[in-house]
Amino acid sequence: MAGTQPSRSDGVRLPVLWDSGERLVKPDLSGLTRLRFLTTTDFPPFNYLDGEGRLSGLHVDLARAICAELTIVERCQIQALPWGELEAALAKGDGEAIIAGIAVTAGNRAKFTFSRPYLRFPARFVAAKANDIAEPLAKTLAGKRIGVVAGSAHEQLLRNYFADVQAVGYERQEPLLSDLKAGKIDAAFGDGMRFGLWLAGPDAADCCRFVGAAYFAPEYLGTGLSIAVTPGNENLATAFDAALQQISAKGIFTDLYLRYFPVSFY
Which pTM was predicted? Predict the structure, then answer.
């Protein structure tokens, strides 16, 4: 598990992704005419159009916070495009950065230079509040029916880390959570972020809760969210790293995180 830091909300702790002893120097951006962040409108709560048609979300607020930290607010813009147009727009020079959840894979590393991760997605267990499940989960879940999306990285992780559970595969998350709520399975295992959104919403009807620890396994789940820039643009990526470190240290990121994830998935 990653380290955690206290947040400004009692009882909520976020992973520490930045070494407090590391001093990241902001590069000189005086030659940067403008900084255009490219995103989409179809990845709520990260980027979406609100009820009044305004571009909103965690990524939008984070981009603004980065611009403020780099003291270039007057040169910053945020533009939404269809997902399939982001890469070409960046390559053509129609933007300087993509903040939209592009996966940091070996293939994408050949296409982009990435900032360091600013958010990671752990795997979590969810169970009914009435279900007495507690650590050590390897013991308390032995023999239990655990729902998981079939063929997913989470299923691989569950089978390899918890060999004694009865994994029950589902094609999609919706019927999995419906069966959890109905008591047809003992617990669910999957993406903590998506589970947290469900727990905070009306469909869960306050039936369930996270149980046990958050599991960070980059070999299964990836390294998390990063900002993508054009290949070789290390100067801008380094500037983002320096800004993100300070945004984290000042508690700004925690405030943004809790604004969009009232049920913390950590």
Answer: 0.91
